[in-house]
Design brief:
Length: 315
Amino acid sequence: MQAHANWEHQLLSLAGHIPHPSTRPFFSYWAGDASLRSAYKQAEIITAAHSKSFHFASSLLPEEKRSAVRALYAFCRTVDDIVDEVEMKKDRDFELDYWRNVVNTASASTDDLVAAAWADTLTRYHIPRHYALQLVDGVARDLSQTRYQTFDDLATYCYGVASTVGLMSMYIVGFKSHEAVSYAIKLGVALQMTNILRDVGEDYRNGRLYLPREELITYGIREEDIAEGRITDNWRQFMKFQIERTRHLYEASWQGVKLLEREGQLAIGAASIFYQGILDDIEKHDYDVFSRRASLSAMGKVAKLPALWMKIRSL
């Protein structure tokens, strides 16, 4: 499909060709450093409070890598909150620049626990600063753009706020070759599209509509329909199309799991499977993403693990 080739090529260009790391991470972050222990503990608290799926999936990693991916999540969450919650433009700009500086210098004051954990993770796992800066810019895009004309346009947004997270996560869990990059990009787009489909009503109430305008027009859906939360046959067909494309992205990204270090495969596979469960829940509730938030329960996550484990063993 040509449109698919176009956006994927564009996102690969954004990622660039960053070589596979030749050095191994420095481990034992807790060795004699109480302040870093506190910093990573704060990152764990933030992850548990804001993303049950990410917290669960990361629990499947060894302890040090688990702490590092939660530091990554806390960094992303904090930057996202700046955009969503800080009202004054000058204050937002100041705080976003603060985080760009944390990334560029890989240093932080001891009283900023999230920054301390993230700076340590950046250095310890040799994470390319390029990806972290792209994430800050991607999140900040919500301040200037609230509508997207095409899926190609939306895919660049998904790259900035989600694929970059996947690319940084690769450096933490470990990967075997640069071929993993394209799969991480696809998984990031799939995860963010799942968020977008789940949060249509909430995002619209906050002034944002991520769904591609071209595709809304194709299915005869107006903004007024979304504002009023109308679940029509047109809406159902539109959502079926969106979910089918997103599932295809999950499927296309799966082969990338075998390019990760073995101890990271279950956690990344779980993140993919858990989020696909959100798509299932949207379908089960007649595509109502206006009056409820689709989710996968804790028991639902646990129930998916045996099949996931067998699937990974077959890679």
